[in-house]
Design brief:
- The protein is built from seven helices and seven strands, in the order H-H-E-H-E-H-E-H-E-H-E-H-E-E.
- It is an alpha/beta fold.
- It has one domain: Rossmann fold, CATH 3.40.50.
- It is globular and about 45 Å long.
- Bound molecules: S-adenosyl-L-homocysteine and magnesium ion.
- The site of S-adenosyl-L-homocysteine has 19 residues, from helix 3, strand 2 and helix 5.
């Protein structure tokens, strides 16, 4: 991977107010990825490719990432960025709405990273569980959504998002097949390991 380009990609994304993964959140995920080289990663929410490029560094030699993005402009930028970072052979972008694409997919993944529409997290979780390998891990970003999720923010205009994020936490923590941790890192991270 071209690290110099990665820094430029990050800088530009921040200038353009693209909600890329926060540094402390990335650090936590990198530690998990360092522990065992993964073969397959599915990401829901590519944006401009920043997180996928970061994760690609930890793949096994034959590993790859499938990543879904519905915004056409961002898909174009992500493709450019992935090329600049010299990781085209490791990242496939699936263009379209994950709500429509996921049910058509049948891959098996070692890690699934959920980082898209908050109101759809329970649906993304259901699809992720279906495509997770045994011993796989599901990670969801922005799970505490600026603190609204743990606080008393029922009247907030993001009510639907908050309700669905709370539902996601309930579904993962109560699932006996998973061990889930909710970390107050970045915008909140849910890490669910399959038992
Ligand atoms: N993972 C990226 C940031 C993703 S931001 C990074 O850390 O670098 C969230 C992205 O998800 C946005 O670009 C948005 O367009 C996309 N998104 C939101 N809902 C989606 C959906 N239902 N299907 C596909 N993409 C979606
Ligand atoms: Mg995020």
């Amino acid at each position: 991977m071209n690290r110099e380009e990665l820094l430029k990609i990050k800088q530009k994304a921040l200038e353009d107010h693209i909600p890329i993964i926060m540094d402390d959140t990335l650090e936590v995920i990198n530690k998990i990825l360092e522990e065992n080289k993964l073969n397959t990663i599915l990401e829901i929410g590519t944006a401009v490719g920043y997180s996928a490029i970061c994760f690609s560094d930890y793949l096994s030699d034959t590993g790859y990432i499938d990543t879904i993005e519905r915004d056409k402009e961002r898909v174009i930028q992500a493709k450019e960025n992935i090329k600049k970072a010299e990781v085209e052979d490791k990242i496939n972008i699936l263009e379209g709405d994950a709500v429509e694409i996921l049910p058509t997919m049948n891959g098996k993944y070692d890690m699934i990273f959920i980082d898209a529409a908050k109101g759809k997290y329970p649906f993304f979780l259901q699809q992720a569980k279906r495509m997770l390998k045994s011993n796989g891990i599901i990670i969801a970003d922005n799970i505490l959504y600026k603190g609204y999720v743990l606080g008393d923010y029922n009247k907030h205009k993001q009510r639907t998002a908050v309700r669905n994020l709370r539902e996601y936490i309930k579904l993962t923590t109560e699932d006996p097949d998973f061990k889930t941790e909710i970390l107050e890192v970045g915008d909140g991270l849910a890490i669910s390991k399959k038992k």
